[in-house]
Amino acid sequence: MMATRIGIVGDGQLGMLLCEAAAGLDITTTILTNSADSAAARRADTAVVGGMDDPAAVAKLVTHSDIITYEREDVSKVALEILKTAEAAGQVTCYPRLATIETIQDKALQKTWLAEAALPTLPFLLSGSVSGVSEAAATLGYPLVQKSLRGGFDGRGVQIISGPDHLDAAWPGETLYEAYAGRFTEIAVMVIRKADGEMRTFPPVDMTFNTDHSVLDWVFAPSAFDDSVLAQAEQVATRAIEALDGIGVFGVELFRLENGDILINEISPRVHNAGHFTLDATESSQFEQHLRAITGMPLAGTALRRPAAMRNLLCNDSLKAAAEDRAAGCDRDGDTAVYWYGKSPSRAMRKLGHITATGDTAEAAADRVAAAYSRLTSGQTGAIA
Description:
Elements: E1 4-9, H1 13-22, E2 27-33, H2 39-43, E3 46-49, H3 55-63, E4 67-70, H4 77-88, E5 93-94, H5 98-105, H6 107-116, E6 124-127, H7 132-140, E7 144-147, E8 158-161, E9 175-179, E10 184-193, E11 199-201, E12 205-210, E13 215-221, H8 227-244, E14 248-257, E15 262-268, H9 278-281, H10 286-295, E16 308-314, H11 317-323, E17 329-333, E18 336-340, E19 351-358, H12 362-377
Parallel strand pairs: 1-2, 1-4, 2-3, 4-5
Antiparallel strand pairs: 6-9, 7-8, 7-9, 10-11, 10-12, 10-14, 12-13, 13-16, 14-15, 16-19, 17-18, 18-19
Helix pairs in contact: 1-10, 3-4, 5-6
């Protein structure tokens, strides 16, 4: 029996880790990449060199694939149209569905869909003009959150308009305004769903963010909330993915407000940074589960084997020396693992890797992560923890 052929759109660390997971599942991978030297290309069985706006490259990816998936939701219109045509012709199957990608990648469509599906989310207003900020402020109050409709991730494409004196800071063009959540905690639930409707979740986790750049900084597993809160979080997350008819792994980011309400912030139709702890702390990883789900294989276990903490390695002056010329791979020492993505430290806050540790508690695991991070940023050599 021939191995299932998976094509992956996108060549970042998520694509790289999907390729690594595929090696143990009798799955061959082809990556669509801008560079044959990318870490993902080196992990894939085949690399198609070209961008998402290159029709010939996308068409070639189709010829190498039985199923196509993505490591990012901002799939270009060029790629979407080619994939739609190929799928209609029976050449390939795309999971998550292309309609799901189109809904999720546009924040206006995603928020409108959440509201129409009666899923809990913050109040919002869509506007196509600069004057819309005044209407949004009158409707939603201050502070006011503005989000770009496409391409905003890792803290980009989001800004806070704090009061009437800052209305001139609003971005022009089509945009999304959202009510400010106030004091809240962020929880993530990684949901896995197959085409037959079978669904599982990884244990909900707590997330903290770099406040200056709104980039995910830490993940703690399990979440510190009690079972009733976590059951509610899982219920909201799974209801959303079922309503979306999602297939694969989805990262559902949730706000837990001071009044106890749990609301959906955003949904990512792919493996997610918040799920990296599954590489070390759960019965299976999010990458393995995504491949199982989209190919129809039986899902594996998702239970937490040990509490864990994960910290992103976000590029700063202290990390540059440690990351320079660091090849993609994992440095492991006991309960601590440092994952490098093979990226050059070319800009501030770029995700260069992450550290995961396990322990008797999430706090103990976090101490191990902090120790490893301190050693990296201080230039020490030797053991990572």
